Amino acid sequence: MAILLPLCLSLTGVEAQEGADEREGQAPFRVEVDAVNVLAAVHDNETREFVTDLTKEDFQIYEDGVLQTITNFTQQTDLPLTIALCMDTSSSVRLKLDFEKEAATDFLYAVMRPSDRAMLVEFDTGVTLLHDFTSNPNDLVREINLLKAGGGTSLYDAVYLVAEQKMLNEPGRKTVVILSDGADLTSKHSFEEMLRMAYQAEITVYAISTTRFGADIDHEGDNALKQLTEVTGGTAFFPYSTDRLASAFQEVDQELRSQYNLTYVPTNKDRDGTFREIKVKVNRDGVRLRHRKGYFAPERLSSANE
Q1: Which of 124, 127, 169, 171 is the most buried if burial means most Cβ atoms within 10 Å?
Q2: Residue 195: its pLDDT value, please?
Q3: pLDDT tens-digit readout, 154-182
C-alpha cells in the first residue's frame, strides 16, 4: 500500500514546481533565517505544577555550549495552537482501537479552543489525512468514530509526512499528538529521518501510548515514543486505564498554555546544515525544564552563477 496523504502538496517532484514562486525557499533547512525560537515549559519537581512567574533574566540559553543572548521573551498563554492528531489503526492496535477513539475524542474536547486548529491523520501500512485543519472538534470526532483497524504500522512515515507536508510552513505553535503503541513495522523513512524532519518543522510531539492496554508491553515501541517526544520538547504518557487519561490531557493542556518563548540570534553564522544542540537553564532550584533539544542550521543557498 502506497503512502497516502491526500489534500496535501508534495514538496518534491513536478507538483512542487507549480506555484514555486510562492513556496521557494520556505523550508527551514534552506531559508536564510537568523532567529531561533525555543518553547520551554517549567514545572515544580514537588508539586508538578507549571511555573509561570519567571522573567527573561531567569533564563540562559546555550547553543553547542556557547551562551546566547535572548533577544525576545514572551510567555505563551493563549496563542492559538496548530495540532495534528495521528492515530494508529494498524492490526497491532485492533483490540485497543476503542480506547484510542475514546482517548482521541476526549483529547480534542479537553484541549481545543475556538482559536485552535486541528487535523486528523490515521496510519497503518500507509498514511491518510482524514480531515484537514478545522477549528470544530466535532468534524474530527465524526471521522474518528468511523476508524477501523488493519494493516502494518507506519508511525515514522506518519510523523515525517505530517511534519513535511502540513507543519513545515505553518506559523506559531505546532503540536503533533500520537496515539499508538509505538511499534513501527512498515515505514519507508527511518527513525533518524523522522527526527530530522520533526526538528526542521519545529514541532512538539506528545504521545499517548496504548501498550498498557494489552497483554504484552512493547518496550521498543515505548522507547521510540519517549525519545521522539523528549527531543522535541514534549512527553509520552503510558496510561493503564481510561481514568488515567484525564490527568494526562490536563497536563498537556496546561503545558501548552504555560510555555515561555525564547528567541535568540545564533553566534554561529555558518550555514552548513549541521545539527545545533540547544540547552536552556533557569535560575530557580527544584524545577524541571522541557524544550526541544536542538535544530538543523540552514544551508547556504547555491548561487545561480556557481
Answers
A1: 127
A2: 93
A3: 999 999 999 999 999 998 889 999 999 88
CA dist., res. 229 & res. 277, Å (int): 16
Helix axes 137-144, 97-111, angle to 10 degrees: 180
Domain spanning 81-256, CATH architecture: 3-Layer(aba) Sandwich (3.40)
Q: How far is CA 207 from CA 71, 88, 224, 248, in A?
A: 32, 11, 10, 10
**Chain Cα centroid distance, residue 70:** 24
Give the H or E element holding residue 60: strand 59-63
Mean pLDDT over residues 91-106, rounded?
A: 87
Query: Rounded to two decimals, what is the model's pTM?
Result: 0.84
- Among residues 277, 290, 270, 271, the alpha carbon closest in space to that of 66 is found at 277
Paired residues of 261 in beta bridges? 39, 74
How much is the average pLDDT of 249-269?
89
CB–CB of 130/121 below 8 Å? yes
- Alpha-carbon torsion 142, 254, 98, 242, what sign? negative
Torsion angle of C-alpha atoms 256, 190, 156, 251, degrees rounded to 10: -30
